[in-house]
Structure prediction request, 697 residues.
Amino acid sequence: MTAPRVPGWRRLLLEAGYSLRDFFGTFGAGQLFLLRILASLPYALARPRLVIQQVYVAGVQSLVVIMLAGLFVGMVLALQGHNTLSRFGAEDTIGMVAALGLVRELGPVVTALLFAGRAGTALSSEIGLMKATDQLAGMEMMAVDPIKRVVAPRFLGGVIAVPILTLIFNAMGIFGAWLEAVIVLGVDEGAFWSQMQAQVDLQDDVLSGIVKSVFFGVAASLLAVFEGYNCVPTAEGVGRATTRAVVHTSLTVLVLNFMLTAWLLGGN
Amino acid sequence: MKSGCPGADNIIVVRDLHYARGQAMVFDGLDLEIRRGGVTAIMGPSGTGKTTLLRLITGQEIPDRGSILFDGDEVTRMSRRQLFRMRRRVGMLFQNGALLTDLNVYDNVAFPLREHTRLPERLIRHIVLTKLHAVGLRGAWRLMPAQLSGGMARRVALARAIVMDPDIIYYDEPFVGLDPISMGVVVRLIRRMNDALGLTSVVVTHDVDEVSTIADCSFLLADGRVAATGTPEQLRDHHSETVTQFMQGMADGPVPFHYPAPDYGEQLLAPERD
Amino acid sequence: MQQTRAVELGTGLFVFMGIVALFFLTTRVSSFDEYAGQEGYELQARFDQVGTLKVRAPVSIAGVQIGRVTAIEFDTERLEAVVTMRIASQYDRIPADSDASILTSGILGGQYVGLQPGGAEDYLAAGDEILYTQSAVVLEQLISKYLFNQAGAGE
Prediction:
């Protein structure tokens, strides 16, 4: 409807142009939205109760999902590691392999993806529904800025919750790896832990993973509240916004992960 | 006082308002005044932009052309800060109440006070209970919005709208979807609040009969302009076809019953649909 | 009010779990780097060959870690590698004639600097250089040397 009728490859090119324009438009709108949220942070920080509530909603609700996922990811890492490493007689390094995989990559990435699916969708649809039921307009009419009162605390809650969830995911994952490797597959317990401790570095591995998770927390929370706030205020619009939030967050997290990894490794 | 229609002291003056949404013209040179202290009804068939008019007057949308004065200040050129200052003097009742779903009735009514004042909690409690009592829902303070009926939700929203003691209250379709009892309650509350608190009330509605019992003055919108002005009686005796069709709820008239269509016979006989 | 308490309690427990997880990750999973700060003193050593020695590799004596490698540079005049390491301050009595060698931990492990104590009366101090050093063993060189020796013995 928007594109004028032109045949063949030229239309394809035109459509690519349109989606590129849409992409940068949305990208820019997201940046501006982030600036508006950041400008509202003093308001949110002056009302810690609102933020605590959102940490609770974002964190506690995702907790069980994150813990289960962490446990099974850790177990499968140990299983795969054992299968491969035992060919070289290096089963002792399973703990190290699992721990490095978890704290550097899988922990932050999988946590962010699960957060997007559990808490992110809840955020988008909650804000979208508030918009659809005039609650946001109602706040505007009561001279209260919804970005300050609704969006900023939810954003902050997500940003705080994601790194904590990542830490819990990592710990559960390593517990799962221990369970599978030591208890099920009979790897020597001492070797498991000592190899892990010798090769996993607090700064380069654990902390760089946390740095990643902070970025992911910002990205996932921002996209969730952005899509909810800018949705078409109908039942269908809210549904679409929720889906879009998950898809965009997943892609953003994966792209961002590559960029952050390159940056963190390049720093050494 | 008899007519209640615009006089010397108007709180809102709209001049030559033009507004289009996409290709569709909503307002085409609308002029309108709202008198301070009265209950003014803005009526019109669905889709004539009654709600849009409220959004324009409260600065939620910006018109293409024209001027809107609120108590002498130009709304169309206000900064966000000025808008917020104006809105503290304004109460608004949305169609479905727009109560905050995560707060209970008490906290909903207390919300504007907590956001805008630093009153001690004792005083807030006093004010909130007074306002809830005025709408007859003091006993429901603990309920969540999801537990309220449509009429109750609107009454809570009314209590919230008057909690900051505004100068003017806008009601957006306050009678839609209410049973007769709730409807009667809301109708009477609008009048009572207006007189007891010395407010100005603007009621946007298409329920002619209900609003006629309380309105001092009515505006009838049609085709992006004011088609008629006057007391409910004056409108009822109006000669224009547009007004009589709306006031008496006739199916056909200037607003046609049939959506524009080709000739009936021709379409039936046409071989293919095109 | 009751609900607010529950939220606060839940959030508190959640954050506490995060702290426990962090504690677990720092103490059980990774080696806490106690040589990262500015405490301690620096020593230098020159090697012909450092192999795959990396910055932050451990420095140990009798198998006990006492410090870390902080810098590896190449001296363009003497054509040698200069390894700078930071030793924790409590290990300030290392004999001046100790020697340093680059060793490998296990078959697949990383390389580290091992110190062998000498018998001198005076001790190494900040900025001193360890004079006796033994370069890293490069596997390819070892193999080719072995092959040449075999060839020589066969004649």
User: Anything to note?
Assistant: The CA atoms of residues 51 and 241 of chain B lie 24 Å apart.
